[in-house]
Specification:
Elements lengths: L2 E5 L2 E3 L5 E8 L8 E6 L5 E7 L6 E3 L7 E6 L4 E6 L8 E6 L8 E5 L2
Parallel strand pairs: 2-10
Antiparallel strand pairs: 1-3, 3-8, 4-5, 4-9, 5-6, 7-8, 9-10
């Protein structure tokens, strides 16, 4: 059974940082590209960032470019999203996905 479990969300002040983690199991993690997608309150899904199976190629939405960094540790079956200089508009539930499976999400609230 494929499982993706996100963690690391929480309440942070504007300008702060968080690191999200996504632990994968039930499939060959190192063979799959991974992405982070978010859903802000009352809005649709927004793709945030992705990286290839080896971790050497990354891409970002314009809204987070220069502030967020995606990475992965294939030995630990874990993907990460380092989020710096957080803004109120980053408030959302963040999901990791391998393209067909999704985690339960982790809530990020950016507020003073």
């Amino acid at each position: 059974e494929v499982q993706l479990v996100e963690s690391g969300g929480g309440l942070v002040q504007p300008g702060g940082s968080l690191r999200l983690s996504c632990v994968a199991s039930g499939f060959t993690f190192s063979a799959y590209a991974m992405s982070w997608v978010r859903q802000a309150p009352g809005k649709g899904l927004e793709w945030v960032s992705g990286l290839n199976s080896g971790g050497g190629s990354t891409s970002y939405a314009d809204s987070v470019k220069g502030r967020f960094t995606i990475s992965r540790d294939n030995a630990e079956n874990t993907a990460y999203l380092q989020m710096n200089s957080l803004k109120s508009e980053d408030t959302a539930v963040y999901y990791c996905t391998d393209g067909s499976d999704w985690g339960q999400g982790t809530q990020v609230i950016v507020s003073s």
